[in-house]
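Weekly structure sync, notes
Attendees: PL (lead), two postdocs, one rotation student
Agenda item 3: pending single-chain targets
PL asked that the sequence for the first pending target be pasted directly into the notes so everyone works from the same version. It is reproduced below exactly as submitted, 185 residues in total.
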Amino acid sequence: MARQAEEDISFDEFVAARARSLFRTAYLLVHHRETAEDLVQSALERAYPRWRRIQRTGAPEAYIRRVIINLANDMWRSGRGVQWQELDEDHLPRLVPQAAADPAERVATRDALMRALRSLPFGMRAALVLRHWEGLSERETAEVLGVSLGTVKSQTNRGLERLRAAVGAPPASALAGSVSGKGAL
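Predicted structure, written out during the meeting:
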């Protein structure tokens, strides 16, 4: 029954409910507000004429995310430069627990993480964004990216290690088995 209700959602209702999440994905891929907005708009424009067929897949958000990722990848490959731009707190994911550090330290850590994320290869960045910012499972991430489960696991692991190194966090092996390691980068 839930699937039937999901299939009956109109395109406008879907956009109203999921636009912010789609924008967040796009922004974390390109790090530029206007470009992220353009990516989401282009993906939605491509999806609109096919909306009924996309709904029948049972995963319209995954489909549109894949379009966003493909468009961002095309932009990256074509070498069209993007000027980096920082966003306000409402549009960025919570990277550092609020109680973990003083405000200045949180800002510095978030900045270091966003710079490190920006420096990652596109596929690694896409895997991290989908897994850790959008909360998709490894299998869902593999489906959206069109890669194997092993690729998602390795890209995510390598990307997390690079992010940890960027903020001076201990490697995952040092956190294994430690209670304080839970929820760490």
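Discussion points:
- Confidence is low (pLDDT under 50) at residues 1-6, 81-99, 175-185.
- The chain has two domains: 1-87, 93-185.
Action: rotation student to compare against the earlier draft before next sync.
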